[in-house]
Every structure is written in structure tokens, then in C-alpha cells.
Amino acid sequence: MSRQSSATPPLDHIDSSAPDSPPSLRGSRCSNCAEVLFPATKDCPLCMATDSMRPHLLRGHGVLRDYTVAERGPTGFDVPYVQAWVKLDDGPVVFAPIAVPDPAVPDLTVGQAVTMSVGPVGTATSDLLGWRFRPDGEPV
Questions:
Q1: 3-class DSSP state for residue 121?
Q2: What is the pLDDT of residues 20-77, one digit of tens each?
Q3: Distance between CA atoms of 31 and 44, rounded to whole angstroms?
Q4: What sign has the CA pseudo-torsion 124, 118, 18, 111?
Q5: Which of the 8 DSSP states describes residue 107?
Q6: Which long-range contacts (CB under 8 A, 24 or more apart) does 49-54 make?
Q7: Less crowded by CB within 10 Å, the N or C end of the chain?
Q8: What is the Cα–Cα distance from 32 to 104, expressed in whole angstroms?
Q9: Contact 14, 25 (CB under 8 A)
Q10: For residue 82, which of 92, 95, 91 has the smallest C-alpha distance?
């Protein structure tokens, strides 16, 4: 994660270069066995091919695999907040916060569809940007 700046993209792992398209995560795909990973790597851990991974954009959509409500957090984070494992439609599983109206009593279901967005992480007024997910149909 990085600090917001008008001169640089919000995160190295996020591609938001197409203004009319949703943001994507920058992962990699093996040119030998087609394994898809996030974050991007140089060598494939599945087939062990060296220097085989090529840039691959991961759509920021998937399903909720599991989640928990964090009652404590690092300095600068409003608590409670929801953390989750999301299985992306493109394959990899990522760990991310989930934006919900009431994190103390989240209305979430394992297997529920979620979509990635980019925004402040920690508090609503934070200048720290990161990716997070929200249930499909919830406002951004």
C-alpha cells in the first residue's frame, strides 16, 4: 500500500489505467503451465519453471471464501472492520478488507459475490490507499 499522490498510481499492485474500467490487480501467469498468481512473481512455484511468469491482469471480482470481524486493529484503523479471503474469478485467493455498512454485524455469506474497489484504508479520512472488496450490489 502507498500514500495517495496525484503524481503516482494508488498502488503498485493495482492497474487503474483505463478510466472507464474497474481496477484490476497486477498478477502473473506462467507461460509454461498457465498457473495464475497474485502478487506477481518471476518464477512459477507450480511447475518450477524459472523466469516463466508474465504480467497478467486479474479482474477485481470473486467470491467470499471466509471472513472475520476484527475487534482490534493497528493504529489508524477504525474498529471493528471485516477482513476476508476472496477467491478471485481468475484463480488466486487474496486477503482484503470488506466494506460493509455495519462491520460489527456484517450481512455476509460465504460464497457471496464481491467486487474490488480502491479507496482509503484504515479510516474514511485516511490518505493511505488500498484495495478492498464490497458485496455485489452495495454502493461503492
A1: coil
A2: 777 899 999 999 999 999 999 999 999 999 999 999 999 999 999 999 999 998 887 8
A3: 9
A4: negative
A5: -
A6: 53/28, 53/29, 54/28, 54/29, 54/30
A7: C
A8: 45
A9: yes
A10: 95
